[in-house]
Specification:
Chain B: It holds the Pfam family WD40. The complex is a heterodimer of chains A (832) and B (569). With 832 residues, chain A is of the alpha+beta class. Among the domains of chain A are: 9-159, Methylamine Dehydrogenase, Chain H, CATH 2.130.10.10; 361-377 and 388-538, YVTN repeat-like/Quinoprotein amine dehydrogenase (Methylamine Dehydrogenase, Chain H), CATH 2.130.10.10. The radius of gyration of chain B is 28 Å and the shape is globular. Classes of the chains: A alpha+beta (832), B mainly beta (569).
Chain lengths: 832, 569
């Protein structure tokens, strides 16, 4: 465990989350996903991340349930180890070191002490083999598993290219245009090939494979969108296949339903296709899943299906092909052009999401808050098609206005649109206010609002810098048109240029009085009221990459980073260079709540972080080797409440948190807390509660507990605790004592039954009784609904007994209690 | 025989013909298809919405299955277009809803149902082993179904739709399942043979996809002296006079016509029968055709511009249909190839009569029909090919059988007798060529050389047979052959090409200088300019007539195919 107080780089989302097919737990309550170096466990019911299991040193490439114990999970990683987890508790049970990179992992019920993995063939590049790994049963946590035997040679590295047939009778592997089937019992290897590249309908290569769970049938997906169903493949010559064709592009993954009657396929069209009875006439579709489907997996009971998408989304789909739930963290877009922007209203991170959309990503819950359609045009999944995409986004200080720029790349000149959105309090969403076609002649390089928190609305201005050598100032004007729906709209107020250089960056000072615009090598400072050029700075050679003003006590400084690896700080009062440092700065990010500025440099293939105050050239914090990937963007996100625990050294992290986005679109942050602390404890509790298998006994126990829980709520915290304490030991004892030391059942039964009865003493308090009556009526109603069937059976008996003299003597409250007890008792009997 | 009125009639096939035996149980509804159980005890009949199974011995309906029973809310009627009865008791139906269904006839239950198409499935055929079927749909697609084991080694088997093929543009009306190929034919006038690669042992003629558009028969006959062409259509004949020109030009030029081609006569056959064969005499004044039941002979007279056609009275009533008609070179007699292996010789008399002269019978007494004839120019010989591929040569002067050409294991596709040497040139369906000297009763030396050296590989791999052979009277070593796709002048005086040489070398030869060209020359001079080529014949020394029938002309006459949405259009 990392000692408290040291800063750690924590991955908190994004990246290519999915290296393998997701796995449902045996009861279909949890979904296990490989996510980077971790294995994540989601609750299917709540979509929450229940647990993150970390321990692998490299990408996790395969996860499989232990066929011998469904509460355990095998995971393989590129670091050459297979780990066995108890995923309910998140405990690594064993680690088997294999020694070579593991590309994929498969388990089979037939092979009790071995698993299958794809490893690179030693001595050869880009050739892989399927091996069976014998897992030794020795004691101890860390074990060696060097006993490998090659099953198939010349397989593909992708986990989708190998599948095991019914009952593990055979294994099928595809590579390029070759299908290999190996029968374990017969030790027979059959090879089939499809005809090579056809010019007209794209290529014929295999892309994925799935085996029928009960029959000898193999489904393969192809790059030209066809699905082939192979049969009779134990004959070298008389094999046969039929073709299903709907996808117009590569079939990304295939999955058979548990019974094998249905086949699911997905591809770049983001449509899940259900083929019934292997017929191309009977198919159903689930369209509009958002993005290309990468992996499909089925739960073992066949009720749920899960698709993992290329943009990191996880969709859970019912067996009747209805969309059920979506687990989405940071959506991966093709290119984050907008940069990392913080929405002042929700404190959510805002960046490119789905094509043409803006995603609002909640950092606390690792969930997408919402997605705003900016481009508002149908996205067509087709390669080589230039489609409008969102390139710039800016919020006004209060989050009341949102400015977006979208562009469509054309051969000659780009098609640009500047849109201004107004936040509508009623609908709680942004509403389009003004659309400006072609705001600039060429690409827009930067855009910013004048950040003046306390000033009136009409002082709000927007500045855009363009590659057409001008920067433009946009201001709100009263709409004179009486038919207009809104009172204000935006129009151009001022156009500025400097020596016909391309404008690259723009930035307002904190008080909004000065605007800095960089023109290639020069930074110009303008008065934001009169639009006079006040002064210029430059630090030749090298063009200006980033500029920003200092904040708070350091607002007299202007910071700029150049192409040639200099970080310069100019004093605005003396118009002179204050200091400069030789650093290849990629990202320059001021903290809006303090005077600190974070700069990320990229040097010799590692990123380093420097945090400094502009008034002193010595950085207050340096983290070398922040991560191996190139950091592209960074953002300070204000904390809800200032962190108190941090030591003096990390004062700069007190009011806001720094987030980075790497070029693989992995979101990282700096944190002093450990991984476990970051997960909410409640979700862990949830996991334990839900982990109990559903048996008549557990139903009874659950009912018992639920009742107690309800009473907890009903009676407040005053009364119930003692009862809870009183009851639970008997049950606990019963459950937790090993079976061989338990006394006889006849002895235990009365204790157990007694524990289920609700003692009357508690209810004597009169002031509580009335409340109880009312509330318990309600709870009874609830439970009545749940137990319709048992109620039916009991109706006559209860009626009979109610006629007895008991009822007359008892008070109303007691009567209710009695009825409740009866009901509980009977249902227990019927459950048996 | 199933009838429109719903009756099924049993006929007995006896040597003299067919004989009505009895009617099976008659119910309402058209009978559209019938299938015998392989043990001949039951017959399955497909009708509208139902299928019935008859017991042959009692004539009773023993099972009646509604094919439409489980389809909800369907108002349309379901036509069972085709039916097959397997020995296992499974009845397979294909219907107008695009389904192929498998029934257990005894229980009357549906075993499996496969919807293969949105339009009707019209035809169905079962392989001999009953483990594979082929169905044809009205969209032009054919599908194969195979009976495959569900698991390795298990006895449970299931019909699985495996291979779809789209070779037709219109309805596939008929399908057949041979042991190595799927054969389909349809409304688009194409016959397609699709080999099953897994059943074909070696690469060869059987291993390639074959498409046939025209019958492998001569449909055009030519009156050389009168310069007339007779075109045979299914229900009528057309007689045309060829145009002529008096200018000359270079290769590839289209010359202006002095006289336009002229449509002289259109002769419609009576009744619904198709014309089986036809011929025009070299002088152009006789015209004969035959349908399945009748033989017709006409006298054509030309008076100035007018033409009159007169039926020859008292033409002999031939008992059996004629399979081929051939006039002698002097137009004095007509040879009629009969279905019984005999060749009748009719003598044509001026001004319009005929009489039966002689009937040649093969010495073996083979009952196979004669389907090809060739007469020699000097009127001495006539060669006849019968269905057992034996070639008999008869002497016309002595009116007796002369000899038999050694039997070859392939069908004869064309034969002709050389006008000078009286050598019989024979083309077989495996593309082999033979030359047989009739006077010497043996193969010629050239023919033996051809057999020793072997023909060029490319030549043997062609997939359409030679349909006509003719000769150049000016140069006796030239043999003119053609099939649908090419016209070939075979020069016997030149060396045969070996497999390394280019067979179709006419275009490369043109570019070579004279001396190099001499070295490259070989016996086959092939021209592929005219496609599809129906007929080619030499009218005189410097005039060759070619008949081309563009496929587009046929296609435009076809009804519109079923509209299908094609992705991306």
């Amino acid at each position: 465990m990392v000692a408290p107080g040291t800063l750690r780089v924590v991955r908190c989302g994004g990246n290519t989350l999915h290296g393998a097919r997701a796995v449902f737990s045996a009861d279909s309550k949890y979904l296990l996903c490989a996510a980077g170096d971790f294995v994540k466990m989601y609750s299917v019911a709540t979509e929450e991340t229940v647990r993150v299991m970390g321990g692998h040193a490299d990408l996790v490439t395969g996860i499989q349930l232990n066929p011998q114990n469904h509460m355990q999970l095998y995971s393989s990683s590129l670091d050459g180890s297979i780990k066995l987890w108890d995923f309910m508790d998140g405990i690594p049970i064993k680690t088997f070191t294999v020694g070579s990179k593991l590309m994929a992992l498969y388990t089979l019920a037939r092979f009790e002490d071995s698993v299958f993995a794809v490893i690179p063939k030693s001595g050869e590049r880009d050739t892989f083999q399927l091996v069976s790994v014998k897992l030794t049963k020795a004691a101890g946590q860390d074990l060696e598993a060097r006993e490998l035997s090659v099953v198939l040679d010349g397989v593909d590295a992708s986990p989708k290219h190998i599948a095991f047939g019914r009952e593990g009778a055979y294994v099928a592997s595809v590579k390029d245009i070759i299908l290999q089937v190996y029968f374990f019992k017969q030790k027979q290897l059959n090879r089939f090939s499809v005809s090579a590249v056809k010019a007209k309908s794209g290529n014929n290569h295999f892309t994925c494979i799935a085996c029928h769970p009960t029959e000898d049938c193999i489904a393969t997906g192809h790059a030209d969108g066809k699905i082939r169903l192979w049969r009779n493949f134990y004959h070298k010559k008389e094999y046969t296949f039929s073709t299903l064709h709907w996808h117009h592009d590569t079939v990304m993954d295939l999955a058979f339903s548990v019974e094998g009657t249905n086949l699911l396929s997905g591809g770049v069209e983001s449509v899940l296709v259900l083929w019934r009875n292997e017929s191309d006439r009977q198919k159903d579709f689930l369209p509009r899943l958002g993005s290309a489907i990468e992996y499909i997996s089925m739960s073992s009971d066949g009720t749920l299906c899960c698709t993992l998408h290329t943009d990191n989304r996880i969709t859970i789909i019912n067996s009747n092909l209805r969309f059920s739930k979506s687990i989405q963290g940071l959506i991966k877009s093709t290119d984050v052009k907008t940069g990392l922007v913080v929405d002042p209203r929700t404190k959510a991170l805002v960046l490119n999401g789905e094509p043409g959309h803006l995603q609002f990503y909640c950092l606390q819950s690792d969930q997408q808050l919402f997605s705003l359609d900016i481009v508002q045009r149908q996205y067509i999944h087709q390669a080589g098609l230039n489609q409008a995409d969102l390139v710039k986004v800016a919020f006004s200080a209060q989050g009341k206005w949102l400015a977006t720029v979208e562009e469509r790349e054309e051969a000659t000149d780009p098609e640009l649109q500047l849109k201004l959105w107004f936040y509508d309090e009623e609908t709680q969403s942004f509403k389009l206010n003004t659309r400006i076609n072609m705001p600039h002649e060429d690409h827009i390089t930067d855009m910013c609002f004048r950040d003046m928190d306390e000033l009136e609305d009409d002082s709000l201005i927007l500045v855009t810098a363009g590659r057409d050598c001008v920067f433009k100032v946009w201001a709100m004007v009263e709409d004179t048109d009486p038919e207009a729906q809104q009172s204000v709209s935006w129009s151009c107020d001022f156009v500025g240029s400097y020596h016909n250089y391309q404008a690259t960056n723009c930035c307002f000072s904190e008080d909004g009085s000065l605007l800095a615009v960089s023109f290639e090598e020069t930074v110009t400072v303008w008065d934001s009221v009169t639009w006079d050029l006040k002064c210029t700075f430059c630090h030749p050679p090298g063009k200006i990459r980033n500029i920003c003003f200092g904040r708070q006590t350091c607002s007299k400084y202007l910071i700029g980073a150049t192409d040639h690896g200099f970080l310069c700080c100019w004093n605005l009062l003396s118009c002179a260079l204050e200091w400069s440092a030789h650093l290849n700065i990629l990202v320059l990010q001021p903290d809006p709540l303090s005077e600190h500025i974070a700069a990320v440099s990229w040097l010799s293939k590692e990123s380093s972080l420097f945090v400094f105050k502009p008034n002193e050239p010595r950085p207050i914090y340096i983290q070398r080797n922040l991560c191996k990937e190139k950091i592209q963007l960074a953002a300070f996100v204000p904390r809800d409440e200032p962190e108190t625990t941090g030591s003096e050294k990390y004062l700069w992290l007190r009011r806001s948190q720094l987030f980075f986005l790497t070029d693989t679109q992995e979101l990282m942050t700096l944190s002093t807390k450990s991984l476990e602390e970051r997960l909410t404890p409640s979700s862990k509790q949830l996991a334990v509660e839900e982990s109990l298998p559903v048996t008549p006994f557990s139903l009874l126990l659950g009912k018992h507990r639920r009742q107690q829980a309800q009473e907890d709520i009903d009676l407040g915290k005053l009364v119930v605790h003692n009862k809870h304490e009183q009851d639970s030991p008997a049950v606990k004892e019963l459950l937790h004592t090993p079976a061989h030391v338990l006394p006889s059942a006849s002895f235990l039964c009365p204790i157990f039954i007694n524990s289920l009865l609700i003692s009357k003493e508690n209810k004597s308090a009169e002031e509580v009784a009335d409340e109880v009556e009312m509330e318990s009526e309600k709870t009874e109603d609830d439970s009545d609904e749940e137990r319709d069937v048992t109620e039916m059976e009991q109706e006559d008996t209860s009626a009979l007994e109610l006629l007895g003299e008991m009822t007359c003597k008892l008070s109303k409250a007691q009567e209710k209690e009695l009825r409740k007890i009866r009901k509980t008792d009977y249902s227990w009997v019927s459950a048996f | 025989v199933g009838c429109e009125d719903g009756s099924v009639k049993l006929f007995q096939v006896v040597p003299e013909g067919i004989q009505f035996e009895r009617n099976l149980d008659r119910r309402k509804g058209r009978i559209l298809c019938l299938s015998w159980h392989p043990s001949d005890t039951h017959i399955a009949a497909g009708s509208i919405d139902i299928l019935r199974v008859f017991d042959v011995s009692s004539g009773q309906t023993v099972q009646r299955i509604m094919v439409n029973y489980h389809v909800q809310k369907v108002k349309r009627e379901c036509v069972v277009w085709s039916i097959a009865f397997l020995s296992s008791g499974t009845v397979i139906t294909s219907d107008s809803f695009g389904r192929v269904q498998f029934w257990d006839w005894q229980q009357g239950t549906l075993l499996e149902s496969h919807t293969v198409s949105t339009s009707a499935v019209l035809s169905l055929a079962v392989s001999e082993k009953e483990d594979s079927i082929i169905v044809g749909t009205s969209t032009g697609a054919t599908y194969q179904f195979q009976l495959l084991p569900v698991k390795m080694g298990s006895l449970e088997k299931r019909w699985v739709r495996t291979k779809p093929f789209q070779h037709h543009t219109h309805d596939v009306r008929a399908v057949a399942h041979s042991s190595t190929a799927l054969i389909s034919g349809g409304l688009d006038a194409q016959l397609v043979i699709r080999p099953l690669m897994e059943k074909v042992q070696k690469k060869g003629y059987d291993a390639a996809l074959r498409k046939f558009i025209f019958p492998h028969r001569r449909l055009v006959s030519c009156a050389r002296k009168a310069r007339l062409l007779l075109f045979q259509f299914s229900q009528h004949l057309e007689l045309w006079r060829l145009g002529s020109t008096d200018t000359t030009g270079k290769d590839g030029e289209v010359l202006p016509l002095r006289r336009m081609p002229e449509h002289l006569v259109q002769l419609k056959s009576k009744g619904p029968e198709h014309i089986y064969c036809s011929s025009v005499s070299p002088c152009g004044s006789w015209l004969a055709y035959s349908t399945a039941s009748r033989f017709h002979l006409y006298r054509v007279q030309y008076e100035g511009d007018g033409v009159s056609v007169k039926k020859v009275p008292k033409a002999p009533k031939l008992l059996l249909p004629a399979y081929q008609l051939q006039f002698s070179a002097d137009s004095g007699s007509l040879f009629v190839a009969s279905a019984r292996g005999s060749v009748h010789v009719l003598q044509l008399l001026e001004p319009g009569g005929c009489k039966h002269l002689h009937t040649f019978r093969p010495p073996s007494g083979s009952p196979e029909a004669v389907y090809l004839l060739a007469a020699s120019a000097d009127g001495h010989w006539v060669a006849a090919v019968s269905g057992d591929w034996a070639i008999h040569i008869y002497n016309l002067k002595c009116l007796k059988h002369h000899c038999t050409v050694p039997t070859y294991s392939c069908a004869v596709t064309a034969l002709a007798i050389h006008p000078v040497t009286n050598n019989l040139v024979i083309a077989y369906s495996d593309q082999q060529l033979f030359e047989f000297s009739i006077p010497e009763k043996q193969y010629t030396a050239w023919s033996r050389t051809v057999q020793n050296c072997g023909l060029h590989k490319v030549w043997l791999e062609r997939d359409s047979p030679i349909t006509h052979i003719t000769f150049n009277p000016k140069n006796p070593s030239h043999i003119l052959l053609h099939d649908i796709y090419m016209f070939c002048v075979l020069d016997k005086s030149l060396p045969l090409p070996d497999n390394s040489a280019l067979l179709m070398n006419q275009s490369t030869l043109k570019q070579l200088p004279e001396n190099a060209r001499q070295r490259q020359l070989h016996a086959f001079k092939i021209c592929k300019k005219f496609q599809p080529l129906l007929f080619a014949d030499l009218l005189d020394e410097n005039c060759l007539v070619m008949v081309e029938r563009p496929i587009m002309d046929i296609k435009t006459q076809l009804p519109l195919p079923i509209q299908q949405k094609k992705f991306g259009t």
